[in-house]
Structure formats: structure tokens, C-alpha cells
Amino acid sequence: MIASSIPKPVDGDSDLLVHAYLDGELDAASYLAVEQMIDANPALSETVTSIGVLQETLRREFPPEPIPSYLKSRIDAAVGTTKRPVRPTWTLMAASVVAAMALSSSSTWLALRTPATNIIMTELVDGHMRALAAPQPIDIVSSDRHTVKPWFTGKIPQSPKVVDLTGEGFPLVGARIDVFGKTPVPTLVYSRRRHLISLTAVLSSDGAFSPYSSRPINGFNIVSWNVGETTYWALSDLNVTELHAFAKLFQQAS
Amino acid sequence: MLVGIDDLAEKERIEVELGKERAEATTDPESEMIARADAKQLESLIAALPVEFRETLVLRDLQGLGYREISEVIGAPVGTVMSRLARARRRLMAAIREGNL
Q1: Min Cα–Cα distance to chain B from A150, Å
Q2: ipTM exceeds 0.90
Q3: pLDDT higher than 70, residue A100
Q4: Contact A89, B70 (CB under 8 A)
Q5: Which residues of B touch A239 (CB under 8 A)?
Q6: What is the reported pLDDT for A252?
Q7: End-to-end CA distance of chain B
Q8: Among A92, A15, A69, A98, residue whose Cα is nearest residue B62
Q9: Helices B67-74 and A93-105: crossing angle, nearest 10°?
């Protein structure tokens, strides 16, 4: 009866992290790690759904103002004040630290993805979003690869491969230079219908970046692959099937 | 109902991108039960929570305070806030379930 409908208890650490995840209290790296953990665990993702529905229901039934008087008096009794503190300027570092400690204490699933990859993906998403938010999402607008390729010369230490995929439905839109860590890197911008694809080439002389299959981050899909010392990262709000098709076409083109 | 695009299956995502109407997401019975709870029921269930769980839940889910802010208000470490909040929500969900049996 009741017991059978209660989701299986999950281990303490991950349970707290799931709540912090839903409350937006995690930093980017922890957020991604928790998301991965949830994806890998159907029972946990069911719990996440239930908690999400609970939060939604509470928001719906108790709009922010005014606080029900009976609750107000109870908070008064319990806390001594209902005065909402001025929102502080400091960030929620403490929660992040707790999260980081909990993350490192349960390292079995953390090993699924390296922190370095998390940082790279966060930077990729940042670069893509910054570009989309700017009045001009690309530094050079051109559908001609013979215009785009020479544009990089002298700006960055590498000459990226630029291919024409117009015939395949991925016209070249232009290019820009992103900064990755402290290194300027070339980013080509292609389009598919009304979606833009940012394709960033990173020289990975240390071979630190392993090819990474796709997964969504804030609605963006990322696909990566290695060619020699170069790691390519394709990022778009396009669906992953077509993004994979793009990646394949790019790899095949010479 | 708003659905994040990350939550969609690949097939659904393609349909959304192609502008097709998305069927209303089906939720499991437990979530439906929770979603049906009204203010009156929730009030009495929240009131029945032990005080330390109740205050954390109210500060977070009704007042919208952050973990650090709650920690300041109740004078307990953030880790305590996290565990109380998790337990408060678990108890509340269980209470909604039992109330609907």
C-alpha cells in the first residue's frame, strides 16, 4: 500500500543535492554533475519530478504575498521574526562548498565526467550565449569559406578547417573568436533553419579532452570529436540528431 | 504547463523545433496527487510538520529565501538547512499521499 508508492530512499548526500539542484543553489559544475546523476537513476528522476511538482503546487497555492497570517504567527513564534532579510550581495558559496564536499565524497558517479570537461562545456555555452546576445553574433559575416578562413590568419595561432555544407542544409554564416581559458580559439558559425551552430576548434596538445557524446545543457546540445590534436565542439539549440548529422558531415568533408 | 527543452525526449524535441503541437506531458499518479492539493489541505499538513522542518520549508518554498538566508534566519548551518528542507518536503509529500488514500 503506502510503502510501495514511496520512492526508494536514495543515499543521503545525493538526496540533499537533488533539493539544492531544484532550488538553484548549485554552481555550474555541481549542477551538471547532479543532472548526470539524476539521468542515470530512474528512481531519483521520479523523486525530482515529485519535488518539482510540490514546489510548483506550493507556489500556485501560496502566492508570494501576503503570507497567510497563521503561518506568519507561527514563523514569529519559531524564528522570532518574519522580517525578510535584505537580499545579501554575497553569493551562496557555502551551499556550493557543501555540495562540492558531498560531490567529492561520493565519487563513484562523479568519475563519469571530469571537472575539466564541465568547465569547458560551461565556457562553450557561455560563449555561444554571449554571442547570441550581442547585436552582432559573429565577427565576420560570410557564407564563403574562402573569406572566412583567411580572416583567422594573424588573429589566432591556428588555421581552422572551414568546409562548405550549404548543399547539405548547413550554410556557413560566419565566424568569431572565442576565448577559452586564456587562449583565443576559432569558432565557425553555421545555421540550420533558424538555429545557429557554434563550432569551436581547440588545440589539445595535452590530449586532455576526450570525445564527448551529446547531452543537453540549458537547452543546448553539445557534440565533440577529436581530429589529431584538435578537439571540435559543436554547440547549438538544434536537436541532437541533426547536430550529429552536422558533426558527421563536417568530419567527412575535406 | 511549461516544460524545459532539456526534459524532452529527442523525438519530442524535433517535433517542437518543427513547430508541432506537443501533447500534454503525462505525469505519474503521485505527482498528479501532489498537483491536486489545495491551499487548505496544504496549510493543515504544513502546520502538522515539526517546527524545525516547517520553518525551513516555509522560508524556502513560500517565502523564497535562499539556503544561506535561511541559515542566517534560523541560526543553523547551511548543511542543516539542506537536510531539514529535504526531510520537510519528504514528509509533506508523504502526508499528501496518505491524505488521499
Answers
A1: 34
A2: no
A3: no
A4: no
A5: 10, 13-14, 17
A6: 85
A7: 26
A8: A69
A9: 110
